Structures are given as C-alpha cells and as structure tokens.
Amino acid sequence: MTQPEPLPLLSLPDSHVDAVELGGPRFQTEPAQVYQELRQRHGSVAPVLLHGGVPAWLVLGYRELLQVTGDAALFSRDSSLWSLWSHIPEDWPLRPLIGEKQESILFTVGEVHRKRADAVNEALFGIDPFALHDRSERVADALIDGFCERGSGDLIAEYARLLPALVLAYFFGFSDREAQEVTHVINDMMDGGETAVRSQAAFYTACRELVAAKREHPGVDATSRLIACSPTGSEEEIVQDLMVMFSAGHQPTAEWIGNTLRLMLTDERFALLLSGGRHSVGWAMNEALWEDTPSQNIAGRWPTHDTVLGGQQVRAGDLLVLSFAAAHTDPQIRPDPAASTQGNNAFLSFGHGVHGCPMTGRESAETIARAGVEALLDRLPDVDLAVPEQDLVWRPSPWMRGLTALPVEFTPAPKTPDEDGSWYSADA
Ligand code: HEM
C-alpha cells in the first residue's frame, strides 16, 4: 500500500504518520485482503489517507459501524463540521463526495433532516410496486432487444448501467426521450472523466427543469409528490433531493445487477442453477451484497465531540469513512468467512440509522435488480462469459464496487414483439 504526498500546508497528526492511502490498485483487485491487513494492524478503526494525503479514519468493525450510524448526535452527517476544510484546495477531486456546500438531504441533520426524509419517503412510497416491476421488465426487455440478435453483448454498458436510471426516470416523471438523455449524463458524471463536470451541470439542469414543469403541472409521479411534501417548498432543496434519489438510486442498483450477474456467471454453484430456477437469483443477490457490496466505503460522519471509537482517540471534526465492505468480513460477525450468508439480511450495504437508505429505496432497488437479473436469464438462458473470469476488471474506486465490463455470449435470440413501437434507442 502506498503513502501519497501530503497536500501543501497539511501536516499529519501523529496518529496518521504511517497511515496508508484509501485507494490504489489493491482496492480494485483484493479489497478484502486490504481490510484484513488494516484490521490486523489497527483494530476496528484504522487511520487512512485520502487523495493528496488527507487524513481520515476508516471504520472497519461491524459493531463500530452500528455505533456510528446509530448515534447521529455524536457522529453527525453535517459535513461542515470537518476541521480540515480550510486546507482543502478548490480542485480537490473528492469535494463533491465529501459534500461541501451541498443542500441535499444527505448532509442535513436533526429535525430538518427528519422532515426532508419524510418527503423523500412519501415520494417513493407512492410508486406502485407492481407498476415498478412491470416497468422494470419492460425496460429490461427493450435493452435485451438491443443485443439479443447479435449473440454477444456487454452486460454492464448495454444493460446494468442503463436499467435502473431508465426505470427511475419514468417514475420521477421524465418523458422517454428525457429519460434516455438523463441516463447518459448520470453515467458520464459518475465515470468521473473529462466530461463529468459538464454532465453534472446537465443533470442538475434536467432535474431543475423537471421540478419547474411539475410545479406548473403536477402529475402522479414521484417528483410531484416530493414537491407537494416539501417542508419548505424551496426549489433548490427539492432539486437537490431529486438528484440524490436519482443518483443514490441508480448507481448502486446498477452495480448490484452487474455484481449479481458476474457471480451467477462465474460461480459453479449458480452456473449449475442458471437455467434451473429463479430462487437462485435471490440467493445470488444476497451473496453479491455480502461479498461485493456496491457501497464499499461511504464518506462520512464527523464527531461532534472528542471520543474513543474502536480504541482510537478521534477528535471533534475528524472525518470518519464508513467501510461497509470491511464490516461484511469482520471476524466478530463472520468467524468463518467461507460460511454461507444465505438467508442472512444483516448486511450493511444500505447503511443503518436515520441516514440509512430509506426502506422505499431498498425495496425499489430490489424490485428493479431482481426483475433485471431474471429477465436476462429468461431471455438468454445459455448466456455465458465471453472472456476468462480473471480478465474481468473492477472499477478503480474504493467507494463503489462494480465491473468495467461484463462481456457475454449466447445463442442469438429474437427480439420481443413491441406493442407500442420501439421507444428505447441506445444512441439517444
Ligand atoms: C443497491 C441499491 C442501493 C444501495 C446499496 C443503497 C445504499 C445506500 C446507503 C449506504 C445509504 C446511506 C448513506 C449514509 O449512511 O451516509 C443510502 C442513502 C439513501 N438512499 Fe440508497 N441505496 C440503494 C438504492 C436506493 C434507491 C433505489 C433509492 C431511491 C430511489 C435510494 C435512495 C436513497 C436516499 C434518498 C438516501 C439518503 C437517506 C438520508 O440521508 O436520509 N437508494 N443508500
């Protein structure tokens, strides 16, 4: 593990002098091993350095994560409490992730957060689960139609990374055309490449225009309900919360679909069952959350007082990064890492406590992901990896776990008869 050069003017506290960087190739290739080494060296809370040598604490222990996420008064979600903001350059790439100057629900606290969370829940609660399932299947079919006759495809670029955004956009009230455009910009924004900043602005504009349109002409969509339930009516707050619902809903669900399909295509236990039955889909989805949770590490929480956490002295205003991935292999809860997690829903992938993923979000994610995996296996029953398993590449990110591509091959299959025209076009 490497030690990055510290940012100018930032002197490291004694606790972090030998800390390792949260990043680099090993988080891509063998994250579980890295967490194990950190745990052996530091216990359940480890000093780490973020990009540019910025000190933070990585909470690795399952019990400590419950403690942190369960005590919102001591471990606040208010990013303005971070003691290092004055040292952080304007162009520091993790600024958006840590949440400076964001007015979204993610970084509000206390009573204000409770009211905003109620509005988000109300907006999502109005999505009919049967309609969500039907739409997910329909979008899945349209996407599969895009490559089924070819006999090959990339299940990340052509499927998993499109499905949740297209489904959510529909329920948020975007038109089909707008849904395709917004899906493109959200993926580009999350890729973090050269056009990411432009795409972020385009995503903001799309959400802002939708909110303005729904204020004028409310409909039966989640955006209209979010506006109606907003505790302040502030346009900026509504736009920010819509963006959180969309981005927090799309990306992890897309990775969950991809990671589940990878598991089913590479692990003999599932390969044998692929054509066999749908019950193995639930098993694989559960195991994908335990072993390759999309939400690996999340920033963050900020202690409001000096305190001791997992044996480490942490100071008010320190940055805590929550490692859900590490907690999933904590020997305190999984003494035998090889033992099956089947039927065990105690994973922390969706967080915990008042800032955890809303139940309506979890249920929507599960409906979309399950429909996506099942539709693919139904339509392409002999689907198989087109490359050796060891050639699959994970994204180089310590934050989200997902593949860069999942190339497959299968017997070419016919398109579905489309009852009302081909509404999905891959090159929108
Ligand atoms: C596999 C899919 C998903 C995963 C793994 C996931 C994970 C998470 C996690 C870990 C958090 C907590 C962040 C923290 O503690 O700081 C969170 C928050 C949130 N998620 Fe999800 N999520 C998923 C799907 C969704 C979906 C489909 C939606 C909505 C359509 C959604 C909406 C939200 C919102 C609004 C929050 C903010 C809650 C708050 O701060 O009060 N999520 N999610």
TrEMBL record:
Highest taxon above the source species: Bacteria
Gene3D superfamilies per UniProt: Cytochrome P450 (1.10.630.10)
Native source organism of the sequence: Streptomyces luomodiensis
Family from the record: Belongs to the cytochrome P450 family.
InterPro entries: Cyt_P450_B (IPR002397), Cyt_P450_sf (IPR036396)
Official protein name in the record: Cytochrome P450
